[in-house]
Design brief:
The chain has about 270 residues and is mainly alpha-helical. The protein has one domain. The protein is about 70% helix and about 0% strand. The protein has a two-stranded antiparallel sheet with strand order 1-2. β1 (about 230) and β2 form a beta hairpin. α3 runs parallel beside α7 (about 130-155), α3 (about 50-70) runs antiparallel to α8 (about 160-175) and α7 (about 130-155) runs antiparallel to α10 (about 200-210). The longest helix is centred in the middle third of the chain and has 29 residues, at about 95-120. The protein is globular, with a radius of gyration of 19 Å.
Length: about 270
Amino acid sequence: MRSITAIIIRNLKNFYRDKLRFFSNILMGVLFLFIFSFVMKSAAIGMANPINYLISGIIIMSVFQTALNNCMNIIEDIASGFMREILVAPISRWQISIGQILSASAIALLQGIIMVIIGLFMGLQIDALHFIEMIGVMILVGIAFSSIGLYLATVAKNSTTFQVLVFIFVMPLTFLSGAYIPTTAMPHFLLPLVYINPLTYTTSLFRYISLKMEGLSAAQLIEAGVAFDIQGVVIMPSFGLAMIAVVGVLFLALCVSRFNKADFSAVRVFEHHH
């Protein structure tokens, strides 16, 4: 446990020192909020508070993307030689992978909390109970998608390949999840892709909690794009919890197994030469 804690503390310190990345992530979230707020005004006709609907989606997207992107640190550690020093130390590889996942999850959670605070200034209203529930979802999402990120990092041979993999993985899932554009406003031919996207259910669960939708009927939740009627089968927001758990457990097992067997000798970090 001490080894895992040491890795978490080190990665958190590195993140704190890299203020450019910290503020660029926040700026990106605010930029998306600004851009898609115009889309929401036309797409969310009849919705009580379209901006809060958008804010909740951007918060969970911020957690999702930060969790994935922070796993590139493992490639940088390998290429710099730091990982060789850890591997010769009396610490198991699975402990290294768990430390990387938990540190990326912690950074993603911090990013999410900051976006929640920004959301409060923009009109989002939450109470203590709902905030705790939001924290719980963000932690689960952070662990699940940090595991996916670490898995992609061990598959990639260099940082450029990792960034391409993350881009290919992130873009379709993000825009087909309903986080920025309500699924009710999407073309019908895209709906099958929306329904098989695990992030759709993660977003709907987070939105259900953050917008306090417990009192709405199933029909109202479907109309709001938070529940889904798939061929007569209604998928409620609580399904998102099961989806996060399954994805998290699956990729946690996959990435730990892959990390234990990975050959890190060929990993490179692409650097710009000035």
